[in-house]
Specification:
The protein is an alpha+beta fold. 41% of the residues lie in helices and 18% in strands.
Length: 280
């Protein structure tokens, strides 16, 4: 049977695809009309922002001018503090959408993850998001992307982190499936050290994979000189917390890199070995 969260996610996907036009209905509209109404409202807010980002980016590219390019930085998302100006969407994950943005107060470029609408309607998941942001904010390591702050409003929940210049490891592996052994060993060494640091603060990642490793280097610079940076502690949990948000029986992670205890859904058995398994 589809859970309330799964139904909400499916309904939001339908809304985002533009399939809900008044003629195509979704069971959620009959089962939980209030939830459906809330999701429609949230999707309108985010949808308008996404359309604005896409349209202004296209205008900037077409005009190829400083004035048009500057217009991209004037985009804002309702509910997000005015100090953050959205530039563009740079990624999507299980829990949120990531944007490149300007922090006009501290004059720096940042990455902002905004929780997906289906999670915003559940107060427990909002708490989980903030709890895990606090967990990640405790970490300070060269191979971990630092979380700078996190908060929520009535409409949104967001996490602000460093903006890393560089493509994910998965993109490099797509071009070169077998990198030089020395380079591969260096990346694994750096990530292992980062994971050990996280574990020393009782923080698990639980979704280590090439897509969640950014290679921090300048454009055109060799992968040999890149610093691997682990991102997306969206699935992490503090091992010593009293708040157990992941429900037993729920798969947490990416199948190809999941440890046996993740496959069985035994959350209580997750530990440092779960991340070690993913590292290989």
């Amino acid at each position: 049977m589809e859970s309330r969260l799964e139904a909400a996610a499916a309904y939001d996907d339908q809304l985002r695809a533009g399939a809900s036009d008044g003629q195509t209905s979704h069971p959620l509209e009959q089962v939980d009309p209030q939830l459906a109404l809330t999701l429609r409202s949230l999707r309108t807010v985010l949808g308008n922002a996404e359309s604005d980002v896409a349209a202004k980016t296209q205008d900037a590219l077409a005009a190829d001018s400083t004035v048009a390019a500057a217009a991209v930085s004037t985009i804002s998302i309702p509910g997000l503090p005015d100090r953050f100006l959205i530039r563009e969407e740079i990624g999507r994950g299980n829990y949120g959408i990531v944007y490149r943005a300007d922090d006009t107060l501290l004059h720096r470029n940042v990455a902002i993850k905004i929780l997906r609408p289906e999670f915003l309607v559940d107060e427990t998941l909002k708490i989980r998001f903030l709890q895990e942001s606090r967990a990640a904010a405790r970490l300070n390591h060269p191979s971990i992307v630092r979380v700078l702050e996190a908060n929520h409003s009535e409409q949104l929940a967001w996490q602000v982190s460093e903006l890393v210049v560089g493509a994910p490891l998965s993109a490099h592996l797509a071009r070169q499936p077998r990198p030089p052994e020395r380079v591969a060993a260096q990346i694994v060494r750096d990530l292992s050290d980062a994971v050990q640091h996280a574990h020393s603060f009782s923080v698990l990642h639980r979704d280590i994979k090439p897509e969640n490793v950014l290679l921090d280097c300048q454009p055109g610079e060799s992968i040999e000189h890149a610093t691997p940076r682990l991102v997306d502690f969206g699935l992490s949990r503090m091992m010593d917390t009293e708040m157990r948000f992941s429900v037993s029986g729920l798969l947490v992670g990416t199948p190809r890199y999941m440890a046996p205890e993740q496959v069985t859904g035994s959350v209580s058995e997750h530990g440092p070995g779960t991340d070690v398994y993913a590292l290989g």
